[in-house]
Amino acid sequence: MIMWDYNELAEICKDYNDATLALYKLRASNEEAINEVYKDIKSKLIETKILSPSQICCEISKISFYNNAYFRSYLSLFKKIFEEYHLNQLPGVEGVFAHILNQEYEISLPPSINGHFFYYSDKEYSLKNYLEHPINKAIMNDDVESFISYAGKEKFRIDHSSVGDFYPDSYLDLSWLELCCYHGAGKCFKFLISKFKPEITQKCLSFTFLGGNAEIMNECLKEQDPDEDCMKYAIIAHNIDFITFLAYEYDEVIDPEYCCEEHNIQAFLVYLDISKNINQCLIYSTRFNFPPLCQYLIDHGADINSIDRDGKTALHHAAENSCVEIAKLLISKGIDIKARNHNGKTALHSAANRNNKEILEYLITHGIDINARDNEGKSTLHYATSKSLLSIFEALISHGADINAKDNDGQSVLHDATKSYNTNVIETLVSYGVDMNAKDLHGMTPLLTAAKNNSLDVMKTLIKNGADIHAKNNEGQTALHLVAHNHNFDNIVEFLISNGADINTKNIKGLTPLHYAAEDGDKELVELLLKHGADIHVKDMKNQSILHFAAWNFNTEVAKALISHGADINSKDNDGILPYQIAKELENDEVAKLLSPVGTNFKKKVPRKRCKTSVNDFEDLDNFEMI
């Protein structure tokens, strides 16, 4: 095995490192300088396909909070990429960033992306107000004279700043001293320490690794010990001196995964140099999407089939992070394409979950098992269906994926399509001959699942394509039972009845949909079912009538409706109990009055541990005697 060389690797990764360094340590404030950074990013990251334009925009939206003195420069850089590459789908963009972007450039992102947009609008967040705030500006520029002038005012509070959401952990109240550490404002820091002697907090120390002022850092280290945030911020800031300082002087661990997340390839190489764990580094190196790095590690003895703590190989990581060229490289080098992680997932599962059709098809054409199931019994097609990833779904089917595959709960792909409310996927499955009435371990068909979820459009699609409207689950419930047990879905009940659903069908306890409606106190549904011919005299396995069930709720209108349609108030169950007795025991006086057989005395006790026949559990009733 040829020993790797740090300097050689650093040279190989130089362009990658230079471009990401310029992005994370942005110091450009004029248009010309910003254009130079943009050209560098474009030529070294975008055109080399290491990062996509949308990925870089999402990174910019996050980085800006760790280097917010250049927030406006980040916005300008974002705008250039956004407009040149005609972007519109940018999941992951921070809410306040999206708000300021709209405020500064009138660039509006979809509501699903900037979910907090209206919150920030209501709060009147303004970049100008933040950047031009006198004390903020003084700290950013380390203008101690202006800072002293402001600090002399009566309203100045040493322990509380007014900075909005422009900082990491913005939900915390940050002190002015902490902001000095964040911005590396050494003069202002010294003034606060000498004048007010404020507490040097853990956050002060952490922020110094963003601010980059070694003198402030040394002062903070006299009061606090480094923690994980210190290394985290040093990695974000791409400050290799601080990273190595923490690693060698304080034994702080460089997290290779975090290096990948923050595109800090230089810190990653330092980790390799310290840990000597070339196998682990190969696994995580895939996430940089930089083939020369992976190639170098393989050539220098890394085990291509090494796994991480979750059982993932380098191929899993490449698929998860949409690194197409890395995946191709690994396969060409002989990686086990069928390897599974500890959850039983193959790289194909990973590619499908990340909606990467190119990697998915490449894996299929190179022999990966298209129907491989994970520990839950789910195939890749299950995941593509449940997430409504139509292009992945169609690619899998075109390559022969089993459309009737079931998971460990017996749920088919069609069940997943039903739960994701995707009628297009359902129609496609139908065209390939999917089993419309497949049952899971609970006897639930896709139609029953749709009924449980009150999904009318899905039910229409299923019934139109041959789903059995009379199918029952293991409890004997039909679609009509399930919909009847929910409130305010009379339109679905009407639809099922109009399509031939048996209105008087019973479950294994002898309950009809009318029992359910009476039990739930749903007068409108009771009237609707009776209008369509529901049997008002039907009884369950305990000989309980519809009125017995009505007695359990406090809805007098339901009881009135049943009585007006001829329900028998004198009907007794197997224990000889009348509906009136149940209502009375529950102190349901209004219903009891309606159900009372005039002139009758009662000595009959309701049996102990008596409960109604229902899909729900109810508390036991104590013995009682009514006269």
UniProtKB/TrEMBL annotation:
Residues 196-271 form the DUF3447 domain. ANK repeats lie at residues 310-342, 343-375, 376-408, 409-441, 442-474, 475-508, 509-541, 542-574. PROSITE patterns: ANK_REP_REGION, ANK_REPEAT. It comes from the Eukaryota. Pfam families: Ank, Ank_2, Ank_4, DUF3447. Keywords: ANK repeat. Gene3D superfamilies: Ankyrin repeat-containing domain (1.25.40.20). SMART domains: ANK (SM00248). InterPro entries: Ankyrin_rpt, Ankyrin_rpt-contain_sf, DUF3447. PANTHER family: ANKYRIN REPEAT AND SOCS BOX CONTAINING 4, LD18443P. This is Ankyrin repeat protein, putative. It comes from Trichomonas vaginalis (strain ATCC PRA-98 / G3).
